[in-house]
Design brief:
Shape: globular
Radius of gyration: 20 Å
Distance between the termini: 48 Å
Largest sheet: 7 strands, mixed
Oligomer: single chain
Structural class: alpha/beta
Number of strands: 16
Length: about 300
């Protein structure tokens, strides 16, 4: 489906019927560098634009204040002896604005000795162009969106289909391999919120939750995986693998929170569960909302 690309603030009535302009992320990032800070509405627009991007077959949905219940769980269950020098790993953190929220909540509760790694598979959007045609791709080459002036179309596919929304025009465009291969790379667009880059104690890391990173093993007092380890995104075997990686990243007694936001008529609610790392497996502590949808995966995982 071809849609108009909206550069400014997108009215709620047009969401889903128009495409957000990824180039606007560049302007917001420039404004953040040029000024002491962004106006709140401008800062929120960064996350709104990401909300319209589908990468790795998942929507990069994010928003300030979206994970307050997970923040409460972390403040409640992190070991008292680690609270003065706390390391948090935030998996699938998208633009990192919720990482900023989490770090500030933990610092408010425990003091300034809080550090965090903002980890996501997609941290950059690559802008290619040839003549009037612009194509946006993920860092791994996945086609995300193409545009011709104010007209654009989504190229990314969902996990349940191999084609981009069953759009024949998008399929035709993707078959133009010679033309697409000739497009030079123009700009890398950061998908990390300016507030996350500026927040002291937050480092940014590209991380696939299905690939073990040796440098992260036994480094963290808490891991949060919100809106990423979902049954709709991964097979059970993949979730089992990812849980094993998170276990390796935590120190003994470390806290794991896995959650997912659910849309309801009044907005969103958070459903999740909390565990502590034991000698060979996770020990369940608490559910919030209706609990994590992968609770049985975490509960049954253990070191062989």
């Amino acid at each position: 489906m071809i849609q108009f690309v909206v550069s400014g603030e997108m009215p709620r009535a047009l969401r889903g019927r128009c495409l957000a302009d990824p180039d606007a992320l560049l302007e917001i990032t420039r404004q953040a560098r040029d000024k002491d800070g962004l106006r709140q509405d401008t800062a929120d627009r960064f996350s709104t634009i990401l909300h319209d991007l589908r990468m790795g077959a998942a929507w990069k949905r994010t928003a300030r204040g979206r994970l307050r219940r997970t923040e409460e769980m972390l403040c409640t269950h992190i070991r008292p002896e680690r609270r003065h020098d706390l390391a948090l790993l935030d998996i699938g953190a998208s633009d990192g604005i919720t990482t900023v929220d989490g770090v500030r909540a933990l610092r408010s509760a425990f003091g300034d000795g809080v550090r965090a790694v903002l980890a996501d598979r997609n941290l950059w959007l690559l802008r290619y162009h040839r003549g009037p045609i612009v194509e946006y791709r993920a860092a791994d080459g996945e086609p995300i969106m193409a545009r011709f002036g104010p007209i654009g179309m989504r190229l990314a596919s969902s996990r349940r289909t191999i084609e981009p929304d069953n759009n024949p025009l998008a399929r035709l465009y993707l078959r133009m391999r010679k033309f697409r291969d000739s497009m030079p790379l123009g700009t890398r667009i950061s998908l990390v919120h300016p507030a996350a880059w500026r927040e002291p104690g937050i480092s940014v890391m590209e991380l696939d939750c299905l690939v073990r990173s040796k440098c992260l093993e036994n480094r963290f007092d808490a891991v949060r995986a919100s809106n990423v380890l979902n049954l709709g995104y991964f097979a059970l075997t993949q979730l089992h693998l990812a849980v094993g990686h998170l276990y390796a990243y935590l120190r003994e007694g470390g806290c794991l929170v896995v959650s997912r936001n659910e849309d309801v008529p009044t907005g969103e609610i958070e459903n999740g569960s909390v565990w502590l790392k034991g000698p060979r497996r996770f020990r369940w502590l608490q559910d919030f909302g209706t609990g994590s949808e992968i609770k049985s995966v975490v509960d049954t995982w253990s070191i062989d």
